[in-house]
Amino acid sequence: MSIAAAVPSSAPNSLETDSPPPIAVVKELTVRYGSRTVLGNLSLTIPAGCTGLLGPNGAGKTTLIKTLMGFLTPASGEALVMGMNVATDALGIRQRIGLMPEQDCHIPGMSAVQFVAYAGELAGMPPEQAIRRAHEVLEYCGLGEARYREVETYSTGMKQRIKLAQALVHGPKLLFLDEPTNGIDPQGRDEMLDLIRDVSHGKGLSVVVSSHLLPDIERTCDSVIVMRGGQVMRQGSLQELSQTTELQYEVELLAFRDGFVQALAPQGGTLVSRQGSKLRLAFPPQMPNAGRALFEAARVSGTQIRGFRLAQRRLEDVFMEAIEQE
Amino acid sequence: MSRSVPIPPSPGIAAPSAITDVTYRNYDGALKTHTFRWWPIAVATIRASVNRKKLGFWIPVGLSFLIYFFLGIMFYFNQNLRQQMSDTGNFMAAGPANPYALSLYQGMISTHLLVVIAAITVGASVIAADNRANALLVYLSKPLTRVDYLVGKWMGVFLLLAALTLTPALLLFLFFAVAYNSDGFLKENPTLILRVIAASLLPAAVHTSLILGFSAWSKTPRLAGALYAALYFITGILAGMVGSVLLQKDTENNNSKMTAIISRLSIDGVTDGIGMSIYDVTPDQIVSRMQGGGRRRRRNPEAEKPSSFTVQERPNLPIMLLIAGVLIAVPLTAAYRKVRAVEVIRG
């Protein structure tokens, strides 16, 4: 799926256009496990909306979430979530946060509705409100039919949904989703991504999705943070990151001819990649009329252009560049 | 708050209701203060034990009531028969001891094993099952501290065990109050109700703390229960053996204070020792009642002398309280160290 397709087609609501304050700000944060530094002098800003945390295993994504939840004490630095310091106001933060952990977790011996209502009560909701809200949230997460079954009997996909339900029950303003599509079949994955997309847009709720599945991030998130080795390698909105520094075109020819690329060379055009008759070509950014140059090269080389469009970098390109960067 | 305009139902179409609206709505309703966030945990712990029809809990509860009922019956018959059988003496009486307090103390020590069984049934899985199901991540991702979590779990188990120790004792007390108030029961024993409460809650508190400590360090409820039972029985046997050896060295009826303490360095020993002080009874009064009371003493004066293999000293209360404090504090501290949202492997 291209980034262009992943950008929301519907107009964002007024809250989003007014560029709301960031949901979390991390300044020179260092977190250590014993002598091992997991996050070293990390600084980043998580904007409101849906943000993807990308990175290979061991990049520090989960550690960052744990630190922002107040589970880990930073060795140095500062982290603010919704204006509250994680070191001093962890309870206040957790009151306004929902966590969907990576691993299976539930309260043994409870049905889904009991479990979600109990999670609401733990967050301070009165029991009658908690049970009403549990029914609502379970319906929303697609577990309405199975709400009276014990959670132990649920399939993996249903367990993922109930983790989301218990994270949503107390009406958090920020949701951390750690690998939300782990172990789900393709249809379930689609539905889960739709849920994440829905809940994170226009509901007054910001979402941070930690994943190593790039298509999931492309489909749900507006901005991305790429981490490696406890450091932020790239950060920005998907639109920003997908922009190239040079002018690139994706061109599809009827049949590839070497002469086509050679004819572009005097104009500054270079071949970036080629897949059969599909080419990605780069031009100097200041080039005024690349389209004309393409047609001229086709005429000279005796080939035919079937189509061309401005190329954008895929998230995979951004990710690979970021993690291969020294 | 804006009110939604009611939409008239169309023919053949169900009227929209809250339950059919499956869109996400935020919750900005009332929230309780943080002070009693542990209470839902305690209630859930109690519900889980009560709903599941755990025989390991309900049978000890039933037996506990039965024991106190039996003690009440014995007391009643003894009091009623005493006047008619003046020559036989009062087998429930034991020298200068308060017979009411002695009966209540007897009830307390008779239910020790029942408390242990109930504690294993109810408490062994309380944190161990959460460890296995990663439930701590659910609890601690909510605005709860580790102390809230532990207080909730502790209170849940404690209240269940208190139902076993305190309720039947209070019923026996109530029986005394109703049946013997004309004899001046309440007037002569104004603090007995408080002593009943203290003496009944102490074993519940000790056993709750111990089982919670074992449960927190295990992912298997059975293992937690087995370790706790092992501690209970091994300390009991060891204290009994060491106490016997020390007693043989002491002179008859002149046991040293140290022997009185060492022979009670077990879970039951500590609660018994404190119970003696609370009810103001002595070991010889208890032994005397166990051996047949005044009736046997009258027939055989030698029986008044308790066995030299029995500790005669009442153990020092401050030391016993200190040991009980350790038995409560150490497992809870251990549990606090273990209860975490995330396992941090330091390396």
Question: What this model shows, in words?
Answer:
The complex is a heterodimer of chains A (326) and B (347). In chain A, 36% of the residues lie in helices and 27% in strands. Chain A has 326 residues and is an alpha/beta fold. In chain A, helix 8 links the parallel strand 7 (174-178) and strand 8 (206-211). Chain A starts with a helix and ends with a helix. Mean pLDDT of chain A is 87; it is low at 1-17. The longest helix of chain B has 35 residues, at 146-180. Chain B is globular and about 75 Å long. The relative contact order of chain B is 0.13. Chains A and B meet through helix 4, strand 6, helix 5, helix 6 and helix 7 of A and helix 1, helix 4 and helix 5 of B.
Name some characteristics of this structure.
heterodimer; A: alpha/beta; 6-stranded mixed β-sheet; 4-stranded antiparallel β-sheet; 36% helix; elongated; disordered N terminus; B: mainly alpha; 14 helices; 0% strand
